Amino acid sequence: MSASQSSQSSQFAKQPVAPVFTPALSPAEGSRAAATLFREVFAAEPDGVWYAPGRVNIIGEHTDYNGGLALPIALPHRAHLALRRREDRTVRLVSSRDPGAVEVLDLDAVGPVGTPGEVSGWAAYVVGVAWALEHDGAGTVPGFDAALVSCVPLGGGLSSSAALEASTAVALDEVGALGLAGTVEEPDDAGRARLVTSCVRAENEVAGAPTGGMDQSASLRCRAGHALELDCRDGSVRHVPFDLASQGLSLLVIDTRAEHSLTDGQYGARRASCEKAARILGVDLLADLDPSDLATALARLADSAEPDAVELVKRTRHVVTEIERTRALTRILTSGQPLTGEVLERVGGLLDASHESLRVDYECTGVELDTAVEAARAAGAHGARMTGGGFGGSAIALVDSQDVEAVAEAVVAAYDRTGLRAPAFLDATPSAPAGRLG
């Protein structure tokens, strides 16, 4: 090959793809965008703009509906909802993703999945909250017009649906004078716990996704600079300091771009297996099992003669050990020990063990998630795991702050070698809960 040919060849050589970080709109930016969309579509001023964050779960996956522990943080990526109260029962909705399409619904006609009042698409997560608040006895909810601008990635496993529900909940709480949420600065935690219940009911019954309450709890009850230790058995919470930046660490979120859905049957099947295992073992929830008795419980399931006994053993083992990993990580974070040396190694080991349990026992990872986790570890991450419901979605990696770009580049390169679509990345700074700007 001649020198000129070699030069031409190098010009057309495949260039590495730079990591793409999905920016978060500030509350002011998001509120301004939502209010602008509202004015353009409805030719009126909104009563206000409310927002709620997506979440990323540090550890404690598929434990919420089993009554266990979870440890999420609220993201700086939020759903922003400009809303105006109406004096009738009509709801009109528009989203920046499709500003030309306005959904028009009647609150008196809304009903659960499988009824004549079934609602499809993203509107179910909005009117479902109104329906649930009324059915939970919070009070009569007025009709409303609302415009949505969200920077929480859709299908990324970062709770875009919970962010939409929570922003709707705090908006309707205020315009409906329900008196539950309080403010971001002075939240009414008991009232917010009631809003969580209604948001979960909306997602389960109106949107048709059989989720637990971890996502909605994070969006409504987290605090800036903290993780939320959530006991999903009784809904109690503890705010755990989680300031990685002061220790030279970052939590890198890897959005695999492998879209997941909580309504496609996989999530529901896992939940049904857990409920079946609990019935066989004679407990209300798998969180009721004593970890010291796990081997005996697994033997009972294995000997149960159920056709899915192997699955029941694996699902149960994941849930019980994941709760223990969550408890262990919380102990470390509340101990005041710096995240260095052996302590940092233990934290990374808990994250790694969580992913392996989700991969082998819960079988909810997949090639995109596994590739992201393996590449991050190989590039120097202290630990990495999938986060969220799985079957696509996102992963997290605990990395030294100066290595964020290098780890992201390594993940992009691994995706390229595997023939996968390039992932995106987010900055997971523990942020404030749902509220109103101003």
What this model shows, in words?
Helix 4 packs across helix 6 and helix 11 packs across helix 12. The strands form 3 sheets. A 6-stranded mixed beta sheet has the order 6-5-7-4-2-14, sandwiched between helices. It is an alpha+beta fold and 438 residues long. The protein has helices at residues 3-11, 27-42, 123-135, 160-175, 189-206, 214-221, 266-281, 294-302, 309-334, 341-360, 367-378, 404-418, and strands spanning 20-21, 48-57, 69-70, 72-85, 90-95, 103-106, 144-150, 226-231, 237-241, 249-255, 383-387, 394-400, 424-427, 435-436. The model is unreliable at 6-13 (pLDDT under 50). A hairpin with a 6-residue loop joins strand 11 and strand 12. The chain is globular and about 60 Å long. It folds into 2 domains: 20-242, Ribosomal Protein S5, domain 2, CATH 3.30.230.10; 245-427, GHMP kinase, C-terminal domain (Alpha-Beta Plaits), CATH 3.30.70. Residues 37-85 form the Galactokinase N-terminal domain. It comes from Actinomyces howellii. GO terms for molecular function: ATP binding; galactokinase activity; metal ion binding.
What is the H/E string?
A: HEHEEEEEHEHHHEEEHHHHHEEHEE
Largest sheet: 6 strands, mixed
Per DSSP, what share of the residues sits in E-state strands of 2 or more residues? 15-25%
The whole-angstrom Rg is: 22 Å
Strand order of the largest sheet: 6-5-7-4-2-14
- The domain tally reads 2
How far apart are the first and last residues' alpha carbons, in Å?
67 Å
CATH architecture of the largest domain: 2-Layer Sandwich
Given this structure, which CATH class of the largest domain is correct? Alpha Beta
- The number of helical elements comes to 12
Q: Mean pLDDT across all residues, rounded?
A: 94
Number of strands: 14
Globular, elongated, flat, extended or rod-shaped: what is the shape?
Answer: globular
Contiguous uncertain segments of 5+ residues: 6-13
Counting helices, strands and paired strands, the structural category is alpha+beta
Helix content: 40-55%
The CATH topology of the largest domain is Ribosomal Protein S5, domain 2
